[in-house]
Amino acid sequence: MKIVALFPESVEGQDNQLLNTNKAIGLKSFLEKSDHELVILTDNEIDLDNHLSDMDVVISSPFYPAYMTKERIEKAPNLKLAITAGVGSDHVDLQAASENNVGVVEVTGSNTVSVAEHAVMDLLILLRNYEEGHRQSVEGEWNLSKVGNHAHELQNKTIGIFGFGRIGQLVAERLAPFNVKIQHYDPINQKDNKNSKFVDFDELVSTSDAITIHAPLTPDTDDLFNYDVLSRMKNGSYLVNTARGKIVNTNDLVELLSSNRIQGYAGDVWYPQPAPADHPWRTMPRNAMTVHYSGMTLEAQERIEEGVKDILSRFFNNEAFQDKDVIVDGGQITSKSYTTK
Question: Of 9, 120, 204, 328, which sits most exposed with the smallest number of CB within 10 A?
Answer without folding.
Answer: 9
